[in-house]
Predict the 3D structure of the following.
Amino acid sequence: MKDAVYRSHVLVCTGTGCSSAGADSLQVELEDQIAQHDLTDEIKVIETGCHGFCEKGPIVVVYPEGVFYCEVGKKDIAELVEEHLLKGRVLEDLLYREPVTEEQIPSYHDIDFYKKQQRIVLANCGKIDPENIDEYIANNGYEAAGIALTKMDPGEVISEVKNSGLRGRGGGGFPTGNKWEFAYNTKSDKKYIVCNADEGDPGAFMDRSILEGDPHRIIEGMLIGAYAIGADEGYIYIRAEYPLAIKRLEKALSQAREYGFLGSDIFGSGFDFELHIKKGAGAFVCGEETALMASIEGKRGMPSPRPPYPAQKGLWDKPTNINNVETFANIPYIIYKGAESFNSIGTENSTGTKVFALTGKIKNTGLLEVPMGTTLREVIFDIGGGLTGDNEFKAVQTGGPSGGCIPAGYLDLEIDYDSLLEVGSMMGSGGMVVMDEDTCMVDVARFFLDFTQSESCGKCTPCREGTKRMLEVLERICGGKGASGDIELLEELGNHIKDTSLCGLGQSAPNPILSTINYFREEYEAHIEDKYCPAGVCPELAGAYMIDEEGCVACGQCARACPVDAVSVQDNEIYVIDEDLCISCGACEEACPVDAVTQG
Amino acid sequence: MSEISLTIDGEQVKVPEGTTVLSAARKLGIEIPTLCYHPDLTRHGACRVCEVEDVAHNRSLASCVTPVIEGMEISTRSRRARKARRRNVSLLLANHPNDCLGCDRSGTCELQEIAHDLSIRTREIEKYEGETRDITPDKTGPALKREPNKCILCGRCVRICEEVQGVSALQFSNRGFDSIVTTAFDLPQSEINCANCGQCATVCPVGAIVEKNEIYHVWQALEADDKHVVVQTAPSIQATLGEEFGMEPGTVVTGKMVTALRKLGFDRVFSTEFTADLTIMEEGYEFLARLEGNEKLPHITSCCPGWVKFAEHNYPDLLNHLSSAKSPQQMFSALAKSYYPDLTGIKPEKIYTVSIMPCTAKKFEKDRAGINGGPLKDTDAVLTTRELALMIKEIGIDLNHLPEDEYDELLGKSTGAGTIFGTTGGVTEAAVRTVKEKLTGEPLERLELGFVGVQDKEIEIGDRTIKVAIVSGLGNTGELLKDVREGTSEYDFIEVMACPHGCVGGGGQPLPVDKEKKDRRAEGLGSIDQAKTIRKSHENPMIKKVYEDYLEEPLSRRAHRLLHTEYRRRPKN
């Protein structure tokens, strides 16, 4: 049967973000409406992966025009079909509006969020149907694998990757080509290749989106890696909390097997490769490679000392190479376009692009990909659109829960592996949490440490006992019971834990605390010495409310709103708040019609 | 293998590639404290108490797990290294009960010793004060008591149980500060597949796993006017008790031990070796019967209660291969409450039987269902070597300065065949000696069986070749038992000892312990066998007498009632 030719394609984003915003019902509605207008033979609806602009989801793109509709609801579908698909008129109400000029922008290439991006890893995300291998192939998919397996020997593949300068996108930034070379050089009758998709950072969804939006890219990257190091078996270790990614990966694996991209004698090269999915139970520490391997083997996810490195003695004691999702996703591009093309992007020591998950107090929450060397300012203000409510920028935390908080003074920092380390943070897997003036940095430090402490595997003393002690000190400070010497104790323990912990989790867990002490020491001091939380976040330390005598119109709304009867009237004229009774809930401030209530 | 050069505290040293920084330092006589490290177990790298600084690479590292690399400049004494160790020890102590004076391991606790050696002071611990672990101790076990609040999560118990014993009764559970070592599903100690071998207790550096102490009950009996307290000492004790008093491992202290027991007030001091000879008679005849085709081969020994329980959990289908003969401890106690009252006229109710054992599983064995020959408990109390030493120390005796004395005669005399029950291979050798002489009238040459892992031997008995295998350490039983299960085993006789090295490596022996020490204990024990004149159980005049007087012949009705028992299937959790 000949494939039908459609005059229009409607792409509905079904990434986890858009799905949870209601995209699932859109597709059914679209197909219904298209059928009602008898357009089924002319218009095709396609589910795609993540477009990245999650803030504006659900997203629908209509081709060939490339019109970008955002925040599309089920109720909009009838009009969209009738106006755009039937009459050819763009539905202006659903277009993205430029926040300042309010100008409506029909094509997404013209939206600021996309303008500064350069998409290698995310090239297909949002463009193709991730559940259809033909669409991947149509975008040059599996060509790189074909080239590698039939025209290059493993050594050539490795040197191409080395020349590209690609560094591991999972955290440490170790050169990928060198890692492959170690595994290649270890002689063994059996080797494994593993993809680390145990993305566990709070607020991070880079790997998930890639797996949901373009699963074949990972399979192809792993196939090339397996050929390079001589592995005939591989595992994708993925969190069980990513059901959509798992479903699409499973589908992609069976399609790849069907097409002969997995199995025996791939591309007639004589090379065999099989790939399995291993679902993880959601322990953050299983992102650490030795713990991950233990987990695949069915053991408790606990890191072990290195050496021996996985390349020497990995899964079931066999040489093993582990890379993260984004690292593998870069491989097809490097082989297909060549190392030169890749290393011309980015900075000298950090080549290529990096995907970031931008969250926090930011207008354009979403997933973006920029060349290494892009500044924090460009990411946060140009792409991210600035802070919500146009609040003042205070800090950005990069690198996941173990990253550091970078203050405004470094907004022009060019992002790469080394520059982030220099300012006390790290690349990590690419989480980026933006904080504004209403964020308490002590509370932020407490939040992240609470996460790493409870996700510690409990094996080594400094991480198990030390992070708990640090957390107790931070809780004390936030609770108004901080004492002099607490900052020094935090620094002592933080440095000690970094210095002596067994694995990367412990070695980086103190970063949020040490970096906030470094850049926001006065906030700690205010908490400890003045018993005051400048951001007004820590409930025990938030200042009492006061009523401005001049402004007060004696309407009494504050007194009625106060849940603890701390507001009383004096001389029937003005209202006053009893500081001792005030619990700083802010109800009076909200109730005041003339803004006479302020927090002290 | 190539050599690596590095400096440690300024001294140049060359060591083979793969050597850890810790062993390189120890070669130079530089001591670095360790807790999770144990020479007989895999490297763990958890406690971080062995931190040193590599100045050349500007890093702090755990010396027990870090292999040397060319050009390292290790300082074990720099401020960074010293502080790292102090802080990690202080962090451990800040989450530890620190009620050292009342702890079972006071004086033998490795954490206490390190805190002492590093002169950690209270203010350093208080600096890290905060929440402490609060978990109820598990005292439900028949032989072992666990106190998780004392646990420092070094994982030595987890590793020995899994790597050496293949039991995996203990594992890590929970995360972060809530991490603990516990049983599967947090089941009580009494309900798990633990063999009670006590290997965990021998490697625990603190008081988190200890044997159930029975000293109090023994003192009560000794101090009661109407009790006649008899004690039996297991073969291996004479080669290990000395360590508790500062002697070299393997020093034989039989005579001094007998004196000490008399001073403690025991009315009669007997050796378990006598009933070891009896076990050999009973088991030897049983084996003969199997050889003659009445029962299934291979014949598997049952004198080790750890092994028996392990088999009940994991190989219930093979229980009919196990000898029905009770262990020497239980044979002794059965006779002590039947034959011995007949001989002495003392009423069985007045007799209190104590056994000194190298073993924690013996505490479990004495209370097994169906273990008693009559209405009374055959064995009233079991003390480990360590508990006996505590009692001797309590009354102010230094074993070094005691004169030697002889066992009491009646149940005391042994052949030396019984003595080597205490090492692996001993049971087999003793049994085969007896069987060979019974069948052929010819003596058996020394088998020279070693002490480690799995060994086998072929023995010509008349026109028949007997194939024996000896295995110690439960983790080594897998292959052998798989063959038995599948009916493909080539062996006629298999001896199993739960503990690596057999009883000299038992769970109740002096601490601390490693392979090297166990070797020396075994050598000490072997030297006793060589020195004895009668070395065949059936030539022991006391054995001849007990059959003539009381038991009639091996496997008689009475022997069956008193000296044999049954086994049962147990769940696998």
Remarks:
- Chain A touches chain B through 32 residues (CB under 8 Å).
- Chain A has 22 helices and 20 strands.
